[in-house]
């Protein structure tokens, strides 16, 4: 902070300026990526308690002409701030619905799509979902909307109403990154979710980390009593898997089973499994 006199501070530093410049560049490049359709959807299998693939989560990647695949961690947060996530998210939803029939041919009956809060609050959100579902003949139970509890923070009533409308369309709701957001447990009573996704931070080293184990067991018990199923995210080792199996975790997802893959590679993997 630089003192300008009489109590006024101006915040600046070379890094901050560079950051802003980089953000502007990224924003422009994202716009170009949208126009030139440089996005791809990868799919990561979700397995049940006997290791059968029952679903796949759609995860977007940006295939940059020079930099190769760019992780969503690098551009989703900015796209959420600029609103570009609306266009990107709609495209991901369309693509996932389109890919569903191919996935179903290979025994994967359900596809999960991430929705950011920003999409949720758009007037045309529901109609765009309806349109995709209708256009690709998506049946009830075949599409899961992954949302984080943070969606509730802006307008709880409106977001709950939207979730019920999605349910009416036959779309399942999964609470993503459960336990890492800012919502309180009291919301859990109101949210019409069928699935809880336990974040990787609670799954990591669960067989030796007694605090993670305690939290995860608590979530499993609570979910069961509320009639929800649980997906453990980021399962990387067989020790973690075995521990989760012992405590009757319904579904798992993680590098132990498979990384997110382009659809052709996923189908290859499914065929050779
Ligand atoms: P997420 O929804 O929590 O997705 C799970 C992330 O964990 C994915 O990262 C996945 O590749 C990664 N992962 C899966 N298994 C493992 C594992 O065993 N170990 C580790 N270390 N990581 C694992 P990814 O694909 O980089 O996506 C990051 C985040 O970007 C997602 O987190 C989600 O919040 C967001 N995202 C991705 N695609 C979309 C999208 O289409 N729309 C929106 N709104 N957000 C998206
Ligand atoms: Ca997710
Ligand atoms: Ca997650
Ligand atoms: Ca996460």
TrEMBL record:
<feature type="domain" description="EAL">
    <location>
        <begin position="23"/>
        <end position="273"/>
    </location>
</feature>
<protein>
    <submittedName>
        <fullName>Bifunctional diguanylate cyclase/phosphodiesterase</fullName>
    </submittedName>
</protein>
